UniProtKB/TrEMBL annotation, chain A:
It comes from the Eukaryota. It is found in: Nucleus. This is General transcription factor IIH subunit. GO terms for molecular function: zinc ion binding. Residues 1-45 are annotated as: Disordered. It comes from Rhynchospora pubera. The lineage of its organism: Eukaryota, Viridiplantae, Streptophyta, Embryophyta, Tracheophyta.
UniProtKB/TrEMBL annotation, chain B:
GO terms for molecular function: 4 iron, 4 sulfur cluster binding; 5'-3' DNA helicase activity; ATP binding; damaged DNA binding; hydrolase activity, acting on acid anhydrides, in phosphorus-containing anhydrides; metal ion binding. Its cofactor is [4Fe-4S] cluster. Its EC number is 5.6.2.3. Pfam families: DEAD_2, HBB, Helicase_C_2. It is an enzyme of class 5 (isomerase). Signal peptide: none annotated. InterPro entries: ATP-dep_Helicase_C, DinG/Rad3-like, HBB, Helic_SF1/SF2_ATP-bd_DinG/Rad3, Helicase-like_DEXD_c2, P-loop_NTPase, RAD3-like_helicase_DEAD, Rad3/Chl1-like. Belongs to the helicase family. RAD3/XPD subfamily. Residues 7-284 form the Helicase ATP-binding domain. It catalyses: ATP + H2O = ADP + phosphate + H(+). It is found in: Nucleus. This is DNA 5'-3' helicase. PROSITE patterns: HELICASE_ATP_BIND_2.
Length: 432, 755
């Protein structure tokens, strides 16, 4: 199945990102592992590839066949895209979105996190996906900040200060993976509330709770804390790993967040990544205000200077604050000395697309309407729509603005990574 | 919205309607058209009450209010819910209709006089009211303004006497609270106002007793005309209500109290002889004339009516030897003495009423006819003696009820004397019970008198047994299923523990430590996997005590409490209410809780565990009745002889309806979801399982019939994850579960085409 998928992927030159290559490499490595797995004895293999029956489904005639993951993924993607554009209003009415987000991720490390209904354990799955999420989050929201909080033994503990560096966060998380005791929602909310109420008013305060536990052991009335969070305009979202809990639902409804429960690991990943794009701004905050920002210059190679973040001398690299000339290691951040928000212009540009998303493409039936001639190749990757050897033609879509046709893989690429429609862009160029 | 049901315009208070509600209305209309009785089963949470009320009220509008709706509920809480639904409906009716609907309850719930309300029990509130409003008290107060009367009743009486048929209550829907506040604002007594107004009301909502218990029914519901539609809601236990209405039990305390009452009355008679002998003579003359009851009693003087059914009361003069008050008292004394001697027995005795009457005749010299008139004679005497503190005279009243019933009915009753409780043979607690076995006796007058009687509930399965138990022939009897957008109920039959050994509460297995441990493991696994609230039902209090005790010793309870708090129902109402309150709190704040309760208990009957208050209900065992109980044995024998119902059939039916009732607590609407675990190997047998209601059976897949703990756990996890996903409430395509006005129109057109 994977092999079939590769053939339809856009050329690597189009995608090109090193990350993508890396991921593909990992896939291949996994495949090799599988091949090795087949060499082991039958009793050992049983655990390596568990629940193979779940990859089967029954069709109308009662025959068993493998689940067509690819079409499933495509259908899910289309659904998500349409959903997003419908909830976010039509493209024309541009809604405000909070681009500068201050997000605390609360990770549940209570006893329930050691359960093994997710393999190898809930905790490991959460940590793995959280890592991916943090990377994706900074990729999509370069102006935002993330902090980590853990719940265990009935207490909430701040793992990392809120900051702009993905690496530091991930490192801190991976070092602290052990679980015991109860979870306390109230303690976690109180802690986060204490930190988030200090941040500047233009920032959007958010909490994302990854909850394994079905109970919360609180010192007081959790309802009051929910109300306090609501008053402090903290948007709380929860992703549960096992079942719907009333208090979490109540929390999300009150504070305007979303509450979802994961079915399995891939669903969990999907739900988590839905939190990466910025949510619509809360109406009270929608008042536009100006934020003073500095665009520091990159320091020259070979210059030795003391950086303000690590308090040590470094050679080359780094950035210099335009106001107080202090050196910082990475962007975006806040200057330690003068408090200026430091960003680079690509960061701003990358946040920009959230405000002007590419319109969702219309689905076109493979045979087209009568009397209409359809192009046989995708406008994006130039590959033929008709599969090799007369296979069933794959799904195709068309941009409502420029009416160019795209294959589903290019569609995904355009909406998820590129954020520009090649058809519309080339038209503009030709008209100029 | 408005919709057409077979040519009748039905006003429905909501914007959309479930398909089964339309079905339900159609069947109901057919029953009303045919003028017969109906038996309808529809699961809870499908808007039964709304469908019922809107169809009957619309039907009544169609017939220009020629008949009245008598809606019987079991509890005051349900009464209020029904009236609230009715109010919503009233606001959707076409404007010129003047609907008058009200609830009627006891004085305790309706009284607004603070002096009267300070009394605790229902009986003492009644007595306190009577002390202020009895006709002789009022006439005394007329002469002497020092005598206290009730200002609310007096002003009500003035308003009512202005014209007998003036409508005192403007049209509208009145809950008990509304009646009270209306009474307060006008200064009228709400209780008597309601009593008066039920004659004119279009809809009356009251308790079962007001129709089924002859003692109350003769007073309250006497004047209802034939063209009434009677609805019994939540009627799965109606046979028990009927039986209780005609059963009397006498304990030692009752007889001692009766002796005290007799002494008091004889003193009163002596006093009266000295002061006002004329009154006693007048009573005597009246009795000679053959009037047991004084005609035209004031509304406030009417006490409890005759315990026997109206048709069975003798229309004769009171026999000569009890016409004089002293003579009657000596008869009663002899009767009480005789009953006391019977209570001294060492062994359990069962007797039929004929033998019992013969024994009374030979040993105490009281013949059957005198016994029959006991009730009427006592009532007359109490009025003559002008006794107002009726609550203190309850004991002698009970004895007279007993005498009248035992002499009136030869069949369908038996007298059982037990010197001690079966379960505690060391503690002497003698009780003499006159128990009725025939549920059809009490309900027969209702079926005979009223045009249509609708019996409806969420659990009436198997539906063919009710007509036999109640001895009537319904024109419509149907069971509806629920249309659901998603499979939001998940019944499972768990037959084995995690060690694959069978689990059951069968008598020989229930104390097996392996079974106890397996049940404990089941609970432990479930508390870890299910969020918020879990409800557990056990077969009896003693079994619950035993198993909780063993769990405590095994350490299972401590493990359970790591995940959820544990609350237990007790026989004390206040304690249980407190436990329920805290249980809800624990579910709200996310701590999670388990509630241990007993099938047939108060919680199983009246408390809802909807939404997060009950995500899972576990029924430990099959809740059979205590089969060694004499009363049950006598009833089973009677059922077999009279209605040809086999003992086993009845017991299974009774146990399964209790089980269905218990698990039905957890789902109260379609948006809700919940799991039900029947933890007993006997549930997997066809004869047991098939007696569950259709809406549970239709979700009970074959794969869920014979589970062990670990399989159940896996299913539970999957189910909870699936249910937590967002879903579309209206359903789609052919599985549409929420119909708008157009949909209903289309549906009825479609139905026309197929005819």
């Amino acid at each position: 199945m994977y092999g079939a998928g590769v053939a339809f992927q856009p050329t690597s030159s189009a995608r090109g990102s090193s990350k993508e290559k890396k991921r593909r490499d990992e896939d291949e490595e996994e495949e090799e592992d599988d091949n090795e797995g087949k060499g082991t004895d039958a009793w050992e293999r049983a655990y390596a590839d568990e629940r193979s029956w779940e990859d089967l489904q029954e069709d109308e005639s009662g025959l068993l066949r493998p689940i067509d993951t690819k079409t499933l993924v495509h259908a899910q993607y289309r659904k998500r895209l349409l959903l997003r554009s419908s909830t976010g209003g039509s493209v024309a009415s541009r809604i405000q979105k909070g681009l500068i987000r201050y997000l605390y991720i609360v990770i549940d490390l209570s006893r329930a996190a050691s359960e093994t209904d997710y393999r190898p354990s809930r905790m490991a799955v959460v940590a793995k996906q959280a890592e991916a999420f943090i990377r994706e989050f900074f990729d999509q929201n370069p102006l935002s900040h993330v902090g980590l909080v853990t719940m265990k033994d009935g207490l909430a503990h701040r793992l990392t200060e809120i900051g702009g560096s993905p690496e530091a966060q991930i490192k801190a998380l991976m070092g602290k993976l052990e679980c015991c005791g109860e979870a306390s929602l109230q303690n976690a909310l109180e802690l986060v509330h204490g930190y988030l109420s200090q941040i500047p008013s233009y920032g959007h305060r958010e909490v994302l709770i990854l909850s394994s536990a079905l109970t919360t052991c609180d010192p007081g009335d959790a309802m009051e804390t929910v109300q306090r969070c609501k008053r402090a305009k903290i948007r709380c979202s929860v992703i549960g790993l096992s079942a719907e809990v009333f208090i979490c639902k109540h929390l999300c409804e009150e504070t305007g967040g979303t509450y979802t429960v994961a079915l399995n690991e891939s669903h969990f990943k999907e739900l988590l990544l839905e939190h990466a794009p910025p949510p619509p701004a809360i109406a009270e905050y929608a008042a536009a205000n100006l934020i003073k920002m500095g665009f520091p210059q990159r320091g020259a190679e070979g210059v030795v200077s003391i950086c303000s973040c690590h308090k040590e001398a470094k050679v080359g690299g780094g950035y210099t604050c335009p106001r107080c000339k202090v050196r910082v290691c990475e962007l975006p951040t806040e200057c330690r000395t003068c408090g200026l928000t430091l960003v680079s212009s690509p960061h701003l540009a990358r946040s920009y697309h959230h405000l002007f998303p590419v319109a969702p493409f219309d689905e076109v039936s493979p045979h087209g309407r009568p009397g209409q001639r359809l192009p046989t190749t995708c406008f994006g990757c130039q590959q033929s729509f008709v599969g090799q050897g007369g296979a069933q033609p794959s799904l195709r879509t068309s941009c409502p603005k420029c009416n160019q046709f795209f294959c589903i893989d290019c569609d995904i690429y355009i909406h998820e990574s590129l954020h520009n429609c090649p058809g519309c862009e080339s038209q503009r160029n030709s008209s100029v | 919205m408005k919709l057409e049901v077979e040519g009748l315009t039905v006003y429905f208070p909501y914007e959309s309607i479930y398909p089964e509600q339309v079905e339900y209305m159609r069947e109901l209309k057919r029953a009303l058209d045919a003028g017969g009785h109906a038996l309808l089963e529809m699961p809870t949470g499908t808007g039964k009450t709304a469908a019922l009320l809107s169809l009957i009220v619309s039907y009544s509008i169609h017939k220009s209010f020629k008949f009245k709706l008598l809606y019987c509920t079991r509890t005051v809480h349900e009464m209020e819910k029904t009236l609230a639904e009715l109010r919503l409906l009233a606001s959707h009716l076409p404007t010129p209709t003047s609907l008058l609907a009200l609830g009627l309850s006891s004085r305790k719930n309706l009284c607004v006089n603070p002096h009267v309300l300070s009394a605790q029990s229902r009986d003492s509130v009644d007595a306190a009211c009577r002390r202020l409003t009895a006709s002789w008290v009022r006439s005394l107060a007329h002469d002497n303004p020092q005598v206290p009367t009730c200002p609310f009743f007096e002003s009500y009486d003035r308003a009512a006497s202005a014209g007998p048929d003036t409508l005192l209550l403007p049209p509208g829907v009145y809950t008990l609270g509304d009646l009270r506040s209306f009474g307060r604002s006008k200064g009228w007594c709400p209780y008597f106002l309601a009593r008066q107004m039920i004659r004119y009301a279009n809809v009356v909502v009251y308790s079962y007793q007001y129709l089924l218990d002859p003692k109350v029914a003769t007073i309250i519901s006497k004047e209802m005309q034939k063209e009434c539609v009677v609805v019994f809601d939540e009627a799965h236990n109606i046979d028990n209500v009927c039986i209780e209405a005609l059963s009397v039990s006498i304990r030692k305390q009752t007889l001692e109290g009766a002796t005290r009452n007799l002494t008091q009355m004889s003193q009163e008679i002596e006093r009266l002889k000295a002061t006002d002998a004329g009154r006693l003579r007048a009573e005597y003359n009246r009795l000679v004339d053959g009037l047991a009851q004084r005609g035209n009693l004031a509304i406030t003087d009417a006490w409890l009516g005759n315990p026997a059914l109206p048709d069975d009361i003798l229309k004769e003069a009171v026999p000569g030897n009890i016409r004089r008050a002293e003579h009657f008292l000596s008869v009663l004394r002899r009767l009480v003495q005789y009953l006391k001697s019977r209570l001294l027995t060492e062994k359990v005795e069962t007797e039929n009423p004929v033998n019992f009457c013969a024994a009374i005749n030979s040993q105490a010299g009281i013949d059957q006819k005198m016994l029959k008139f006991c009730y009427d004679r006592l009532h007359s005497l109490m009025l003559t003696l002008e006794i107002t503190n009726t609550d203190e005279f309850m004991h002698i009243q009970t004895v007279c009820d007993f005498a009248t019933l035992v002499s009136t009915y030869a069949r369908g009753f038996s007298i059982i004397i037990e010197p001690y409780d079966e379960r505690m043979p060391t503690i002497p607690d003698p009780v003499l019970q006159l128990s009725c076995h025939d549920a059809s006796l009490a309900i027969k007058p209702v079926f005979d008198r009223f045009q249509s009687v609708i019996i409806t509930s969420g659990t009436l399965s198997p539906i063919d047994l009710y007509p036999r138990l109640l001895n009537f022939s319904p024109v419509i009897s149907r069971s509806f299923t629920m249309s659901l957008t998603r499979d939001c109920i998940c019944p499972m039959v768990l037959t084995r523990g995690s060690d694959q050994l069978p689990v059951s509460t069968k008598f020989d297995m229930r104390s097996d430590p392996g079974v106890v441990r397996n049940y404990g493991r089941l609970l432990l696994e479930m508390v870890a996997a299910v969020p918020d609230g879990i409800v557990c039902f056990f077969v009896s209090y003693s079994y619950m005590d035993g198993i909780v005790n063993s769990w405590n010793e095994m350490g299972i309870l401590q493990d359970v409490m790591q995940h959820k708090l544990v609350f237990i129902e007790t026989q004390d109402v206040v304690e249980t209410t407190l436990a329920l309150d805290n249980y809800r709190k624990a579910c709200d704040c996310g701590r999670g809780a388990v509630f241990f309760s007993v099938a047939r208990g108060k919680v199983a009957e009246g408390i809802d565990f909807d939404r997060h208050y009950g995500r899972l209900v576990i029924m430990f065992g099959v809740p059979f009745q205590y089969t060694l109980s004499r009363i049950l044995l006598a009833r089973l024998e009677y059922l077999r002889e009279t209605f040809q119902i086999k003992e086993g059939d009845f017991l299974t039916f009774d146990a399964l309806r209790q089980a269905a009732q218990c698990v039905g607590r957890v789902i109260r609407s379609k948006a809700d979801y919940g799991m039900m675990i029947f933890a007993d190997k006997r549930y997997s047998r066809h004869d047991k399982r098939s007696k569950l209601p259709g809406w549970i059976l239709s979700h009970l897949h074959d794969a869920h019939l014979n589970l062990s703990t670990d399989m159940a756990l896996h299913i539970a996890r999957e189910f909870l994850r699936r249910m937590a996903q967002p879903y579309d409430k209206t359903g789609c395509g052919s599985k549409k579960t929420l119909l708008s006005e157009e949909d209903v129109m289309k549906m009825s057109e479609g139905a026309m085409d197929t005819y």
